[in-house]
């Protein structure tokens, strides 16, 4: 009995740090904005947005009003903060090359509760990101 309790306690102590770790700003940026290669390219932009906003946890308790997905190699997006980008202002950098994007906007406006319904628009353009410690942590609406 004591050995079983000790095993459970050891397992709990090993799992606890993983349960309590928070997502870094960079990890959150990647989760919310990077989708490469693009998920199910056969979906139209509306269906894509509805799927991805839910899949990426942006419709759990309230519907995030808008979000843009970048369909570019994560390393190329990261490079916007260095040699792949040009300083814009404060901590913002503009990419030197365009990326394929899908912009998702909630239908009906305001803060809504799930189920969420989005419209989507696909474009290709340069991006602007806020950088901290050489990596993107904030997406600013395209130029």
TrEMBL record:
One of its GO terms (cellular component) is extracellular region. It is found in: Secreted. It comes from the Eukaryota. GO terms for molecular function: endonuclease activity; hydrolase activity; nucleic acid binding; RNA nuclease activity. Keywords: Disulfide bond, Endonuclease, Hydrolase, Nuclease, Secreted, Signal. Residues 22-143 form the Ribonuclease A-domain domain. It comes from Podarcis lilfordi. One of its GO terms (biological process) is defense response to Gram-positive bacterium. Residues 1-20 form the signal peptide. This is Ribonucleaseribonuclease-like. It holds the Pfam family RnaseA. Belongs to the pancreatic ribonuclease family.
């Amino acid at each position: 009995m004591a050995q079983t309790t000790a095993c459970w306690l050891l397992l709990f102590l090993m799992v606890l740090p993983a349960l309590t770790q928070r997502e870094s700003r960079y990890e959150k940026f990647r989760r919310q904005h990077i989708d490469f290669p693009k998920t199910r390219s056969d979906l139209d932009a509306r269906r894509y947005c509805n799927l991805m906003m839910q899949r990426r946890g942006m419709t759990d308790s309230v519907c995030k009003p808008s979000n843009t997905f970048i369909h570019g190699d994560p390393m190329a997006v990261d490079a916007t903060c260095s040699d792949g980008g040009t300083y814009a202002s404060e901590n913002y950098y503009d990419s030197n090359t365009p990326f394929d994007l899908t912009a998702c906007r909630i239908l009906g406006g305001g803060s809504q509760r799930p189920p969420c319904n989005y419209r989507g628009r696909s474009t290709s353009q340069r991006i602007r990101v806020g950088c901290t410690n050489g990596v993107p942590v904030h997406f600013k609406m395209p130029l």
